[in-house]
Design goal:
Elements lengths: L1 H19 L1 H10 L3 H9 L3 E7 L2 E10 L3 E9 L8 H12 L4 E7 L3 H9 L3 E11 L2 E11 L3
Parallel strand pairs: 3-4
Antiparallel strand pairs: 1-2, 2-3, 4-6, 5-6
């Protein structure tokens, strides 16, 4: 779990500070991306995976599965490994995991790079949501879906 914690602290500020600001990033690191919260999510059934390249950790991903869908809650790669095809490999794996189901994810409305990747992979925007996460912050997201049930 310490590897995931290190990856979170490396990746999150770089991706999200320009989008939501340092204060909200720090708040989310302390609450939603803390080691304690990750352990809680695992105890509730979330599946976490460390992504490796040449036996070195380069990212992490997590999902939760229900009867009719797989919710992809996290997919993060280090800056040095983005754009090298690792994300495509992970998405192909998720399509196998979610075969016969729907694959759903949330993405910040201003995370244009991620949105472009999801749309390129065949995800469709099906909704938007704003969730109050405390301390005066909100998560302002789009909901994307790829229907693999057909």
């Amino acid at each position: 779990m310490l590897i995931v914690d290190q990856l979170v602290k490396e990746i999150w500020p770089e991706i999200y500070t320009p989008i939501i600001g340092e204060e909200q990033v720090n708040y989310m690191l302390e609450t939603y991306q803390s080691l304690e919260n990750i352990q809680k999510e695992i105890s509730e059934g979330d599946q976490y995976f460390i992504l490796l390249a040449d036996n070195q950790p380069v990212g992490y991903t997590a999902y939760r599965e229900s009867a009719d869908e797989v919710y992809l809650s996290k997919l993060y790669l280090t800056n040095a490994t983005r754009g090298k095809g690792y994300g495509n490999q992970v998405f192909s794996w998720y399509e196998q995991v979610a075969a016969g189901k729907k694959l759903r994810l949330n993405v910040n409305k201003y995370n244009q790079r991620a949105i472009a990747i999801y749309e390129h992979r065949g995800f469709k925007c099906v909704d938007s949501c704003q969730n109050d996460i405390g301390a005066g912050f909100v998560m302002d997201d789009y909901v994307y879906l790829k229907d693999l049930s057909k």
